[in-house]
Specification:
CATH superfamily: SGNH hydrolase
Radius of gyration: 17 Å
Helix content: 40-55%
Strand content: 5-15%
Number of strands: 5
Structural class: alpha/beta
Shape: globular
CATH class: Alpha Beta
Oligomer: single chain
Number of helices: 6
CATH architecture: 3-Layer(aba) Sandwich
CATH topology: Rossmann fold
Number of domains: 1
Largest sheet: 5 strands, parallel
Strand order of the largest sheet: 2-1-3-4-5
Length: 208
């Protein structure tokens, strides 16, 4: 029996945002091929740092891990987007400092996950759906540096990558500007299962 564990944040732990409809883990279970089961280890509000605690509760029979983390790390810095700066260079340097710290935390998280010697996959941070057009554009631009850190980590360690920016793309995929709805969760679950069916223990980075 193969046992997939979903780690990270509310991208997987979205039950609070589905209005009673199935959440991601239930939709994953409905789609998994025979011989597979799934457990939710992710916690709404989770960060790269809190994945460590989630790993401590890993089921002993876990065989595969997939993590979606980083969105809440980015959200901590949202005030930076509206802070006054003296020049474009100052803004970029500030963003670079944030990215450097995030990359350190993300690599620490991946290192801890890989210590379990299980096939592991990672997810990018999807785009939010802020109603304010300016905030949306600025946020999408800033998220590029976070996603670059995630993509580079996947390449360095040869991990499969689920790019959620191409999964949740419509208004109905969101329960609010940052959380996945039941419909968005269905798309995420389908993408997770597709990755499972392709196999993600080859040691090479493949993007879904």
């Amino acid at each position: 029996m193969n046992h997939l564990v979903l780690l990270g944040d509310s991208i997987f732990d979205n039950a609070a945002y589905t209005s009673g409809a199935p959440d991601v883990v239930h939709q994953v279970r409905q789609r998994l091929p025979p011989g597979w089961r799934a457990t939710l280890g992710a916690v709404d509000g989770g960060t790269t740092g809190s994945v460590r605690e989630q790993l401590r509760s890993l089921p002993p029979d876990a065989t595969h891990l997939i993590v979606s983390a980083g969105g809440n790390d980015a959200l901590v810095h949202i005030d930076f987007l509206g802070a006054p700066v003296g020049s474009a260079a100052e803004a970029l340097l500030g963003l670079a400092d944030i990215a450097t710290e995030f990359e350190r935390k993300y690599h620490a998280m991946i290192t801890e996950m890989l210590a379990y010697r299980l096939p592991t996959a990672v997810c990018t941070i999807y785009y939010p759906r802020f109603p304010d057009a300016t905030l949306q554009r600025v946020t999408v631009t800033a998220l590029a540096v976070f996603n670059d850190c995630i993509i580079r980590a996947a390449l360095i360690h040869g991990l499969p990558l689920l790019d959620l920016r191409f999964v949740c793309t419509e208004e109905g995929d969101y329960a609010d500007p940052i959380e996945p709805s039941a419909r968005g969760g269905e798309k995420i679950a389908s993408a997770v299962v597709e990755m499972i069916e392709r196999g993600f223990d080859s040691g090479r980075t493949a993007v879904l």
